[in-house]
Design goal:
With 154 residues, the chain is α+β, with helices and mostly antiparallel strands. 37% of the residues lie in helices and 11% in strands. Helix 4 packs across helix 5.
Length: 154
């Protein structure tokens, strides 16, 4: 499934979350934590906004799911606007997003979880032969107040 090609029972985009911390502050904090955990390389991309960086740099990370980088970036732009999300990390098959306004209720989190599943099914159903992850409701509960969303397409 490519971004935008949602199943018939897809509930639609999650509603924006109200006020929260400044997105840039949350992104800085999240990037610092990732830097300690992973010792990443710094990459500068000439994109007008962080959500467009994967397409601008030709990031191949989601190839096993989709080659539609503009579609993935459209989803990221939507998350920027609705949740204060900022791309803070790209791996060869992973993406990390800092979230200033994460869902705060189970129903809001379930709507976000449905978007995550459409964006990156591997978060719930890995493609590498590992056992399936949590069901959508359990995954959603883990998103409540979560300031970092991690996606993996291996």
């Amino acid at each position: 499934m490519t971004p935008g090609a949602m199943p018939a029972d897809f509930p639609g985009p999650a509603r924006p979350v109200g006020r929260g911390r400044p997105p840039e502050v949350v992104a800085d904090e999240c990037a610092l934590v990732l830097a300690v955990w992973r010792r990443p390389w710094l990459g500068l991309v000439a994109a007008s906004r962080g959500a467009d960086a994967p397409a601008v740099c030709g990031w191949p990370g989601a190839q096993r799911h989709t080659r539609d980088l503009p579609g993935l970036c459209a989803v990221l732009r939507s998350w920027e606007e609705r949740f204060g999300a900022r791309v803070v990390g790209l791996g060869h098959d992973s993406l990390d997003v800092a979230v200033a306004r994460p869902p705060t209720t189970p129903s809001a989190a379930l709507a976000v979880a449905a978007e995550h599943y459409a964006f990156c099914p591997g978060n719930l159903h890995p493609l590498d032969g590992r056992p399936a992850g949590p069901d959508l409701k359990c995954y959603a509960l883990d998103l409540i107040h979560r300031r970092r969303w991690h996606f993996w397409w291996d």
